[in-house]
Amino acid sequence: MKRKNGIVGAGFSGAVIARELAQAGHQVVVFDSRSHVAGNCHTERDAQTDVMVHVYGPHIFHTSNERVWNYVQQFDEFMPFINRVKSIYNGKVYSLPINLMTINAFFGKTLNPKEAAEFMDSIGDKSITDPQTFEEQALRFVGKELYEAFFKGYTQKQWGMHPSELPASILKRLPVRFNYDDNYYASKFQGIPKHGYTYIVKRMLDHPNITVHLNTLFERSAADEYDHVFYSGPIDAWFGYAEGRLGYRTLDFEVERHVGDYQGNPVINYCNQEVPFTRISEHKHFAPWEQHDKTLIYKEYSRLCEEKDTPYYPIRLVKDKTQLARYVELAQAERNVTFVGRLGTYRYLDMHVTIEEALNAAESFLTADKSAEKIPAFFVNPLG
After folding, report:
1. Are strands 52-54 and 61-63 parallel, antiparallel or unpaired?
2. Is the CATH number 1.10.3110 carried by domain 96-171?
3. Which residue ranges make up each domain of the chain?
4. Which residues are catalytic?
5. Topology match between the domains 4-79+191-246+315-370 and 96-171
């Protein structure tokens, strides 16, 4: 049965689902409250420098999922890009993630891989056998000095709380490399779209069966006008914050323009807590295939998300998860509404995971629709 479906949100979740349903013959109407598509991945040319700006902060595409990689390449050419992050601590520059160069530079040594592995094993806090907090997890793996240099201050700025208050799950594993590999990601496929992320999303939504309404708030009461609604906005907003607002961190950007090259690298973290910003990103370095005489930088500040702010990172502490459980219960009682994406499921998701989940959601929806099965409120458990 061919349906008329409403999709709330024109980021990757909404755009991928819209595209897949449209290609299957469904009519799709997409709504977004912003003036542009692509959500927080939105890119646009800066009028003063002509640099392609990642408006809501840097986004580097990386995945080891070949299906996702092949899918996105239908919509733009992906240029090779390796994210090589640098970090400044106490006036010195280091390489991240922690690798042989970091270890040797920090401790003034010339260790080989075997010696470095033994050294790192010796400085880890072996008294911590079952780490419960972010701090314990870091101390266990990298020891006090590296924890205080690269994790303690940065984490306090990023999350607004001491690492001892954060769960160990935030730091699931610490990628310590005993070689000189400074590729920030270990993914098989990495790159940045030649024409930016907004170009990709516009192409996804360019289909005769898709209608897009920007600058438009979708009211919950309008859901009955559609056979099914996919909602990728904040789950608490759908219910009018009936159970209170879920906690997020948001970002503020201080924009500066300069002549020439500002820092010589796309991203440099500032780990000392007394430096108020977390990092500086220089956007022309995200497109090294382009040449620009001028440059644009973002100084990035993290703080608690308030009512009018753009939500970035779900906090997901015990209080938030308790609230989320109540919203999940409300969502499961909804009729013909499915909650998807980062905001719809209150989970931090990289772009490639968002796209993979959207492809799976569309596929599951089309399969269930053919057999007249009930469409679930979630294709991925937000509480998992």
Report:
1. unpaired
2. yes
3. 4-79+191-246+315-370, 96-171
4. 173, 177, 249, 279, 300, 348, 350
5. no
Pseudo-torsion of CA 44, 211, 191, 291, nearest 10°? -30
- The answer, yes or no, to whether the previous bond of 58 is cis (omega within 30 of 0) is no
CA distance 313 to 304: 10
Q: How far apart are the C-alpha atoms of 384 and 365, rounded to whole Å?
A: 21
Ordered mean pLDDT values, 10 residues apiece, the chain (384 residues) = 88 98 98 98 98 98 98 98 98 97 98 98 95 94 96 96 91 84 96 98 98 98 96 98 98 98 98 98 98 98 97 94 97 97 97 98 95 94 94
CATH number of 4-79+191-246+315-370: 3.40.50.720
> Hey, what amino acid is at 110?
T
What's 167's DSSP letter?
A: B
Return the percent helix, strand and coil in the chain, to nearest 5: 35, 20, 45
